[in-house]
Amino acid sequence: MGDQMQVIVEKLNQEPFRKNYNLISFDSLEPLQLLQLLSDVLGEIDPKHAVDIREELPEQTAKRMLNLLGILKYKPPGTVSDLSAFRQGLVTGSKAVIHPVLHWLLQRTNELRTRAYLARFLVKLEVPAEFLQDDTVADFNKQYEELMEAFKNLHKEHEQLKISGLSTAEIRRDISAMEEEKDQLAKRVERLKKRVETVQNHQRMLEIARQLRLEKEREESLAQQKQEQKSQLFHTEQRLQRAQVQLKEMQHMVADSKPESLMKKLEEEINFNSYLVNEKIPREMESKKTSVYLLQKLVAEPAMTQADLTALESEIEEVTAQMNQLIEKRIITYEPTDSKFSMYRQQASIISRKKEAKAEELQAAKEEMSSLEKQVEQKNSQAHGLGGSEVLTEDEFKQYVSRLRSKNTLYKRRRQEVAEITAEYGILQRTEELLRQRHQATQQQLQAIEEKKGISGYSYTQEELERVSAVKSEMDEMKGQTLDNMSEMVKKLNAMVAEKKASLAPVIKELRQLRQNCQELTQECDEKKMQYDSCAAGLETNRSALEQEVKGLLEECAQEESNYRYINCMKRSLEVQLQRAKEEMKAYVSPEPQERRRAVREQYTRIILEQENLGKKLREKQKVVRESHGPNMKQMKMWQDFEKLMECKRECFLKQQNQAAIGQIIQEGGKDRLVL
């Protein structure tokens, strides 16, 4: 209540009220004065309500104020929720009713002024249904509703223009500047046209310039397309690198893991994704939709002032206090029968919170891993751009070194073999040339002999038959070898399968025993975990109850401390006032005239007498001024006319002197001619 009075006094001491109140003077106001003050505040919001309540009946005053408060959407606080009690308190000028109303009005004066202005045009007049049967009345009512909607739209546009910050003066300045630029450009174009027209073949040159401009634009578009394609190629390479990295990871996982571990990982990933899809993401979507709806609603509303923020904070504090009271009542009316259900609820809530926290941690870890993978990809791309290769890990580097050593030894051995083969190749090549020469000589001799005997081509046919028979025999041998190899391979595979089965049989038996042990241990772990969770939930419940109790006690202590400080301040102010009153009474009752002069009453009496004497002198002076006003104005007018007359005479005298000087010059000129 003290904070509320402090806010009211501060607002009333500011513009446009300037009441110069303090907490004591405001608290000592009479009911009629409070009603007049409320009427003045309402008159500041709506000028129609700036009236003197002494000139109207109390019922009319209450009706007028209730009507305006209803338009302004004021809701009575919880202490005066009954409308009849609120109306009665408004008629009698009760502080418990008027102080909250003043506090609510003074905190949002600008907003309420706008609302009262809009209410003059948007409060719909209710026309009875029987009057609406008339076509003329119905048309007028429809036209009235259309005008109301048009006013709403115009007001919204006006508010948007005010918020946007554009003004007509700025727009006019921009338009004038653009028109000036347009005129300057037009003049410049005209000058350039005149210059160009004097040049030979200007049309052809203009056409060439136009083609040049088009080609430049085309070059810019092609450069832009090239840049876009480069960026697309870069993104595609990055995607390819990511896919290759994922492929390597999957191959590594497949090579280093067993089917059971892979299935377990897949099940964990499926459970996590199903939790995200079914629980976490829908809940986040609902919260995001709610926040978006609230933000859209907030954007649609007018801008909030500091008074609105303080009002919202006060409402939040009130709701928080009510919640604390309800929690305290619930704790007081706690029944032991609900302890099991509350314990299970708290356990479920704790487990759900832990589950959400772990899911968020996992999501954050995945995001961090993806960001690190992106950084690795960027580093790899930078290495590729600088002409390097991918960055190897420690194991890959060791493997690379071992492969490099083996390849080096293999390279040396192969190089020696190549040198030997090269030398042998030279020998064989020479031998081949010699044999080819001999063969050619032998063939020539054979052809000569065949021509002599009359059987030319016999040797060629004989060679072809031998070559075909050799190829056929080779194919038959290859078929037989292939069949033998296949039969041997099948035998080897069967033997290997039998051997693997025999070697895996004891391992499978051990695996079954280990699975059974794992199930038993898992069951025991789940039981221990349930016991731990129940114990933790109980401890968490006790801790939360103790925290609530401590919080309530701290709030009560703070409230009592603030009440103590407020009462102490009031006590000090009342003691100071009482001391001043005692001193005043002592000075006023004292027989000494010097002491009496120090009394405030004597000082104010002396000041009042001085002001009355000053008022009398000023009234006498005003009377003298009024009596002499007419003659003085007449005399001033006569002086003005006399001034105009003298000015006219001066001008006539100057003109006469000028004419006399001109006549004298003319006479002197005539005399000079006669002498000549």
Automatic annotation (TrEMBL):
The keyword Repeat does not apply. The keyword Phosphoprotein applies. Residues 137-253, 309-382, 483-563 form a coiled coil. GO terms for cellular component: ciliary basal body; intraciliary transport particle B. Keywords: Acetylation, Cell projection, Cilium, Cilium biogenesis/degradation, Coiled coil, Cytoplasm, Cytoskeleton, Differentiation, Phosphoprotein, Spermatogenesis. GO terms for molecular function: tubulin binding. It holds the Pfam family IFT81_CH. It is found in: Cytoplasm, Cytoskeleton, Cilium basal body. One of its GO terms (biological process) is cell differentiation. Residues 3-126 form the IFT81 calponin homology domain. Gene3D superfamilies: Intraflagellar transport protein 81, N-terminal domain. Component of the intraflagellar transport (IFT) complex B: together with IFT74, forms a tubulin-binding module that specifically mediates transport of tubulin within the cilium. Binds tubulin via its CH (calponin-homology)-like region. Required for ciliogenesis. Required for proper regulation of SHH signaling. Plays an important role during spermatogenesis by modulating the assembly and elongation of the sperm flagella. Belongs to the IFT81 family. This is Intraflagellar transport protein 81 homolog. It comes from Cardinalis cardinalis. The gene is Ift81.
